[in-house]
Amino acid sequence: MLLIHCPYCEETLPEVEFVHAGQAHIARPDLPSSQTDEEWEAYLFIRTNEKGIHAERWRHVHGCGRFFNALRHTVTDQFLTTYKAGEPRPELPVEGGDQK
Amino acid sequence: MTTTLSSRHPGVLATSPAVEVSLAEPRGRLSLRARGDLTPFARVLGFALPERIGQRAEEHDIRAIRLGPDEWTLNTPMAAVQRLLEAFAAIYPDHPHSLVDISGREVSLVIEGAQASDLLSIGCARDVEAIPAGEGRRTMFDGTTVVLWKDAADSYRLDIWNSFAPHVLDLLKTGCAELAAEARQA
Q1: What is the CATH classification number for the domain harbouring B91?
Q2: Quick one: closest CA in B to A15, which residue?
Q3: Interchain proximity B138–A16, CB inside 8 Å
Q4: How many angstroms from the chain centroid is the CA of residue A97?
Q5: How many CA atoms lie within 13 A of A70 on its CB side?
Q6: How many beta carbons lie within 10 A of that of residue A91, not counting itself?
Q7: Last residue of some domain: B103, B135, B170?
Q8: Fewest beta carbons less than 10 Å away: which of A7, A68, B6, B154?
Q9: In angstroms, what separates the C-alpha of A60 from chain B's closest C-alpha?
Q10: What mean pLDDT do residues A22-32 have?
Q11: Are the C-beta atoms of A25 and A69 separated by less than 8 Å?
Q12: CB–CB of B139 and A62 under 8 A?
């Protein structure tokens, strides 16, 4: 079982309390009606499918109920860090250093 | 057969030599959502709302637990519910918030005894022994969201939604039987 650190509860807790909620840092366009079909398609459907370190949203649904962001290595499944929603993606010391 | 727990009388529901599960007396329950300056709410309540998630505060038999960054549950005597609803409504124009009476939504199970933590471990992935006594957590118990209040190292209360309560109670009964069987073998 994965252990995930909730940045709101400030505790490291079992995975069953959390749900995954897709890629992080995807901003909804301010004026959807100004978007071309291609831009809107990219916003709705196009994701990176990263092999390596991936910024993704999680929700502590059976706890504080808040969404937050996490950096997870998609190959090793290791959580490198978690941070509150709205904060920029943190720089890791050596991104992916020993994660190969 | 499953019967709704709210139709039962408070009392012991399952036992083993070292742990006992009982249904608690009905309590008033209020869900409070608020942001910003919390001092007006503290004035109405008579005590400050807890500041950290999982922390509790209590005065005059009104217990508050913080469940999220902007969410608290108040556990009160039944008679206090109406008074609190009116007192909070009075400060609403200046301090918008949400206060909802959820008394009918949940029942509480009391789990007490030397093996209370062992019994909870059959349904809760969290390390319940690591929760400090006098605090509480919202967590997952056998697929159900529950609020776990830890009153002492060997005394817990579980707030469970009515519809999930028979399911949770069945698991606790099984757990009690297993613990009793272990005690007989030892």
Answers
A1: 3.30.70.1520
A2: B125
A3: no
A4: 20
A5: 27
A6: 6
A7: B103
A8: B6
A9: 10
A10: 92
A11: yes
A12: yes
